[in-house]
TrEMBL record:
PROSITE patterns: ADH_SHORT. Residues 3-183 form the Ketoreductase domain. The gene is phbB. It holds the Pfam family adh_short_C2. GO terms for biological process: monocarboxylic acid metabolic process; poly-hydroxybutyrate biosynthetic process. Gene3D superfamilies: NAD(P)-binding Rossmann-like Domain. Keywords: Oxidoreductase. This is Acetoacetyl-CoA reductase. The keyword Oxidoreductase applies. It comes from the Bacteria. Its EC number is 1.1.1.36. Belongs to the short-chain dehydrogenases/reductases (SDR) family.
Length: 241
């Protein structure tokens, strides 16, 4: 029977590419989203993938959403924690609301979803947790104290889970994208983006599909020995030690 994959924020951008690639690899895919009904409906119509609207920052809403995913698609074997937002501001202007929103959506979300699929994965002796971090969680970034903290937090979270899931056939890994051409980058001023592209040795932004293919590999049976790793996919913009 096909394995079930849940991709949070799976209807747009990088998540959309991940949903589509996992579907192409034969998974039964469920795609979560937060509020953009039009994009989700268009995605679902185009791909036939079922979409599930719930706020990943809300533990109880995640519980309700996961029940629907399980009933309509299946128990989650592969979880891609991809949903994320930015609320950039120089630190001297960053508010507690900026901080909390990003920590909740980009980091606490991973706890909320993973915790509620973890027991099932343990029972079935198989699981794949893939957490989408960021180059800016690895190296930090101006105006992103909140985002860099959340994305770095995902790396520590993943390493702890790697130990705990290992004996139960569950692997936990991070994918850390560089700058990828999605709507998220529309929040970056064009002149700033130009400067960023100049620092990417391959001289271009990444494509969502280039993140999706890494996720598909980590989800596969072949990747069973990769556990606790951070896979950078960034065109050599930042080479972690
Ligand atoms: P997009 O803004 O294009 O898409 C974000 C997705 O996340 C949407 O599907 C959105 O749903 C969903 N989402 C946002 N908030 C919530 C929420 N509270 N509950 C449920 N779903 C939510 O982002 P990208 O595709 O660019 O980014 C995807 C991931 O990759 C993020 O974690 C991001 O931090 C990370 N990343 C992106 C990089 C880039 O250059 N683009 C670089 C490095 C990392 P809806 O459609 O309803 O709004």
């Amino acid at each position: 029977m096909a394995k079930t994959a849940l991709v949070t924020g799976g209807t747009r951008g990088i998540g959309k590419a991940i949903s589509e690639m996992l579907q192409a690899k034969g998974y039964s895919v469920a795609a979560n989203y937060g509020g953009n009904d039009a994009a989700a409906a268009a995605f679902s119509k185009e791909t036939g993938i079922k979409v599930f609207k719930f706020d990943v920052a809300d533990y109880d809403a995640v519980g309700v959403g996961l029940k629907a995913v399980e009933a309509e698609v299946g128990p989650v074997d592969v979880l891609v924690n991809n949903a994320g937002i930015t609320r950039d501001a120089p630190f001297h202007k960053m508010t507690l609301a900026h901080w909390q929103e990003v920590i909740n959506v980009d980091l606490t979300s991973a706890f909320n979803v993973t915790r509620q699929v973890w027991d099932g994965m343990r029972e079935r002796n198989f699981g794949r947790i893939i957490n989408i971090s960021s180059i800016n969680g690895q190296k930090g970034q101006f105006t992103q104290a909140n985002y860099s903290a959340a994305k770095a937090g995902l790396i520590g979270f993943t390493k702890a889970l790697a130990y705990e899931g290992a004996k139960k056939g569950i692997t936990s890994n991070v994918v850390a994208p560089g700058y990828i051409d999605t709507e998220m980058l529309q929040a970056v001023k064009p002149e700033v983006l130009e400067g960023i592209i100049a620092t990417i040795p391959v001289g271009r932004l990444g494509k969502a599909e280039e993140i999706a293919s890494m996720c598909a590999y980590l989800a596969s049976e072949e990747a069973a020995f990769i556990n606790g790793a951070t896979m950078t996919v960034n065109g050599a913009q930042y080479i972690a030690g």
